[in-house]
């Protein structure tokens, strides 16, 4: 860790909400949803109780990753405007408490998932936590502008874990769900980086906006979005896809490509003049994009169960 600032003394005794905030509940909600879809679209029944325990373990494991990330990144969080009020830099929770919580929840979630479901799913969860904390947070985030590209794999594993809970393995369908999130992550976060650019510079995080500038970042957003399209649409032609998913995916990819193109064709002066309206719009589109794709997969699963879905 880089000692940008000293950790503040605790201002008061920590409350439950402070510890819960360490788990990054907004990020956890996406983890839970994509993992649940991965579990539900997989072939073969899963006992409801086993499914509930598995999703709980995945959620707890995701939260553990968030706590360990906040422990490691407390120094840069204290510098960035959008993160300085997190529990550690604000002095509500100590770094040692966050570390202990993250380690305890990591071990608990992995072991319980292995016992409740299977050890393939537990191994994937353990690797996900390791990848996010060690590979992304400790190594990539502060060393390369490709941090988001490679580190995005950590957020892409949940549907693969959910699939493994139901099937005990990995398949083309789960790999494509992984690839959908993996390819979506760079344009999603780079759009955010374009309108919080000074934050990353102040914290000396080598985000692409800082190392290569906004023009290059805009080009990368468009390029990755274009590469995302065949991955997203391709899922429609697998056993978990279908006409409903295909229709939704075509519309969403046209929408996202349009938003990426509007970002790409702008200049710095245009962005500054309207307070990065196009960049903020692309970021919001990216949030809907992922949720609606996985929602469409879920609809296809319901239709198949009723004998109406699929090709």
What's the arrangement of secondary structure elements?
Blueprint: H1 16-22, H2 25-41, H3 48-72, H4 74-77, H5 95-116, H6 119-140, H7 147-151, H8 153-156, H9 158-167, H10 172-195, H11 197-202, H12 208-211, H13 213-234, H14 243-264, H15 268-273, H16 277-305
Overall CATH architecture of the largest domain? Orthogonal Bundle
Oligomeric organization of the protein chains:
single chain
N→C terminal distance: 52 Å
Helix share bin: over 70%
What characterizes the major β-sheet? none
CATH topology of the largest domain: Tetracycline Repressor, domain 2
- State the domain count: 2
How many beta strands in the DSSP annotation? 0
Can you tell me the overall shape?
flat
What value does the average pLDDT take?
91
User: How big a fraction of the residues is strand?
Assistant: under 5%
Please state the CA-atom Rg, rounded to the nearest Å: 20 Å
N-to-C order of helices and strands: HHHHHHHHHHHHHHHH
CATH class of the largest domain: Mainly Alpha
Structural class: mainly alpha
Assign the CATH superfamily of the largest domain.
UbiA prenyltransferase
Number of helices: 16
Q: What are the segments in which pLDDT stays under 50 over at least 5 consecutive residues?
A: none
Keywords:
311 residues; mainly alpha; Tetracycline Repressor, domain 2
Please characterize this protein's 3D structure.
- This protein is mostly helical.
- The chain contains 16 helices and no strands.
- The chain is flat, with a radius of gyration of 20 Å.
- Helix 3 runs antiparallel to helix 5 (95-116).
- 74% of the residues lie in helices and 0% in strands.
- It has two domains: 13-170, UbiA prenyltransferase (Tetracycline Repressor, domain 2, Orthogonal Bundle), CATH 1.10.357.140; 171-311.
- The longest helix is centred in the last third of the chain and has 29 residues, at 277-305.
């Amino acid at each position: 860790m880089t000692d940008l600032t000293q950790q503040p003394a605790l201002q008061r005794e920590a409350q439950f909400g402070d510890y819960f905030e360490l788990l990054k509940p907004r990020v956890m909600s996406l983890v839970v949803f994509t993992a649940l879809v991965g579990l539900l679209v997989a072939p073969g029944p899963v006992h409801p109780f086993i499914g509930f325990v598995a999703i709980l373990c995945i959620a707890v494991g995701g939260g553990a990753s968030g706590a360990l990330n906040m422990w490691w990144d407390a120094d840069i969080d204290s510098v960035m405007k959008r993160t300085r009020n997190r529990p550690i830099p604000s002095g509500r929770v100590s770094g040692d408490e966050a570390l202990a919580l993250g380690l305890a929840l990591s071990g608990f979630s992995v072991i319980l998932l292995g016992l409740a479901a299977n050890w393939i799913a537990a191994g994937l969860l353990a690797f996900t936590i390791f990848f996010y904390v060690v590979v992304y947070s400790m190594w990539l985030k502060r060393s390369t502008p490709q941090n988001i590209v490679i580190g995005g794999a950590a957020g892409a594993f949940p549907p693969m874990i959910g699939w493994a809970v139901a099937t005990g393995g990995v398949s083309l369908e789960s790999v494509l769900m992984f690839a959908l999130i993996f390819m979506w992550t760079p344009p999603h976060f780079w759009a955010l980086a374009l309108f919080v650019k000074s934050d990353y510079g102040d914290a000396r995080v080598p985000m692409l906006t800082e190392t290569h500038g906004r023009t290059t970042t805009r080009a990368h957003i468009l390029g990755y979005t274009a590469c995302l399209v065949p991955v997203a649409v391709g899922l429609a032609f697998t056993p978990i896809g279908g006409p409903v998913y295909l229709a939704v995916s075509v519309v969403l990819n046209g929408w996202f490509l349009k938003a990426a193109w509007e970002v790409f064709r702008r200049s710095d002066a245009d962005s500054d003049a309207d307070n990065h309206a196009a960049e903020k719009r692309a970021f919001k589109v990216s949030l809907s994009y992922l949720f609606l794709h996985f929602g469409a997969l879920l609809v296809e699963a319901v239709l198949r169960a009723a004998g109406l879905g699929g090709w």
